[in-house]
Design a protein that fits this description.
The chain is α/β, with parallel strands linked by helices and 277 residues long. The chain is built from ten helices and twelve strands. The protein has a six-stranded mixed sheet with strand order 3-4-10-9-5-6, sandwiched between helices. α4 packs across α7. The structure holds zinc ion (ZN).
Length: 277
């Protein structure tokens, strides 16, 4: 029996190695065989094109005067749930490349809003991607940070700096999705800090773009933004691969998005930002 199992394992390893060599993968959504090339890695073109949508913009209060604008590439639906689960919990890192592809329109929108038209190259040099860090414990458990992989992929595509050293997560927190909405904010208090090493710090004039896989209540991104503001950074926004609208759907009966990407109620009035949670 043991010999049989060993043989089976060897065959599986050989098949996996051969598939990698031939760049053959199975689509993580519909399971068809795909040729994984530079354009797509783990999702077939058909599924990838179906996931593409207008970026969703949400705003969350950082404090009494400042809002954090979050631009999300897709709605968090069953397909995105599958992809993010496989990436984070099955260690399927190839998916990160496709999430980066999906996030290009959202990042393009942020860059376009940032550019003034006078010196776009210089402006772009002032944009820095900051992946949301994992705690040391989570990092050891998972072995990689999915947001860092996505940020590096997007950074090289758009020619943006990626800084994964400055923002730290000294406190180990429970996963946000395991908590009730009322406990999500308190779970993250003092979760983030910034490095004291000058060489690891972006310039105070830089515009920082926090990057995460999913935005649900916005609490994680807001806490990270608070830590950055505490260190004197003023221009902070965020980009995520997906936006969970579940809370919003349940509590506000929403709805739909205005062509601008902003949330509107049924009479086309912009939804109050504090209602978006
Ligand atoms: Zn597919």
């Amino acid at each position: 029996m043991q010999t049989h199992q060993k043989l089976l394992n060897s065959i599986n390893q050989f098949t996996a190695a051969l598939s990698t060599y031939l760049f053959i993968e199975r689509c993580r959504i519909c399971d068809v065989f795909i040729h994984s090339d530079s354009a797509n890695a783990a999702i077939c073109r058909r599924c990838l094109s179906r996931l593409v949508q207008e970026p969703i913009v949400s705003e969350f209060p950082i404090d009494d005067q400042n809002l954090l604008q979050v631009t999300s590439a897709t709605t968090y639906d069953a397909r995105m749930k599958t992809l993010i689960y496989k990436l984070k919990y099955d260690g399927d890192q190839l998916i990160a490349r496709d999430l980066a592809t999906l996030m290009k329109p959202a990042l393009t929108q942020i860059i376009a809003a940032h550019n003034t038209g006078t010196n776009d190259r210089e402006n772009r040099n002032r944009l820095v991607l900051l992946p949301i860090p994992l705690s040391r414990w989570r990092s050891m458990q998972r072995g990689f940070n999915q947001s860092t992989i996505i940020a590096k992929e997007l950074g090289s595509t758009f020619g943006l700096q990626t800084n994964n050293r400055f923002l730290k997560r000294p406190k180990h927190t429970k996963p946000q999705h395991d908590l009730r909405k009322s406990d999500r904010n308190s779970n993250l208090i003092d979760a983030f800090a910034c490095s004291n090493k000058r060489k690891e710090s972006p310039s105070r004039d830089d515009s920082l773009i926090l990057l995460d896989d999913i935005c649900t209540s916005g609490a994680t991104l807001v806490e990270a933004a608070k830590a950055l503001r505490h260190y004197g950074f003023k221009n902070i926004q965020a980009v995520t691969a997906s936006r969970a609208l579940l809370d919003l759907d349940k509590s506000k009966g929403l709805t739909r998005l205005h062509p601008s990407g902003r949330f509107v109620d049924s009479s086309n009035k912009p939804l109050l930002r504090h209602n978006i949670s």
